[in-house]
Design a protein that fits this description.
158 residues; alpha+beta; Alpha-Beta Plaits; 5-stranded antiparallel β-sheet; 3-stranded antiparallel β-sheet; 26% helix
Length: 158
């Protein structure tokens, strides 16, 4: 049976000891899908929504990058990681959905999955925040890891 990695031998929360691990190149990609309603989606013009607060997608991208860099401040047992790169894309899709994708990389002893998930999540929350004046009928449908490389084994969502 697989055990939780963040519990010590007495089942207390504990940061994973990575001191014996080797530094490898690690990447992760995560996505959040946001469902907009007619009112918000109708504001889409040339791939962007402009609001009184500013360009919605561009602001969401900046918020997502900032969040990825601060993941260890938000998630208690995450290791602080120096990021080599963080890229976020915001793409309107069919069915009034927006796909937010966050790709992150580092050269370190532990992976960047949480940084990618945090970046995508906060970008989605920022999209919601900037559009809620138009409608609160916006849903963040899902956030998930798409892929990761480096470490014990690679992963790609099926």
């Amino acid at each position: 049976m697989t055990e939780f990695s963040h519990l010590d031998d007495q089942d207390r929360p504990s940061m994973v000891d990575i001191s014996e691990k080797v530094v490898t190149h690690r990447t992760a990609e995560a996505e959040s899908i946001v469902q907009l309603d007619d009112t918000v989606f109708s504001q889409l013009d040339s791939g962007e929504i402009q609001s009184k607060k500013g360009p919605v997608f561009q602001t969401a991208i900046m918020a997502g990058v900032m969040a990825a860099k601060k993941t260890s401040d938000l998630i208690p047992l995450c290791h602080p990681l120096p990021l080599n790169n963080c890229q976020i894309t915001v793409d309107p899709r069919e069915n009034q959905q927006v796909r937010i994708c966050c790709s992150v990389s580092t050269d370190h002893k532990t992976g960047v999955e949480m940084e990618a998930l945090t970046g995508a999540s906060v970008a989605a929350l920022t999209l919601y925040d900037m559009c809620k004046a138009l409608s609160r009928d916006i849903a963040i449908l899902k956030t998930r890891l798409i892929s990761k490389t480096g470490g014990k084994k690679d992963y790609r969502a099926g």
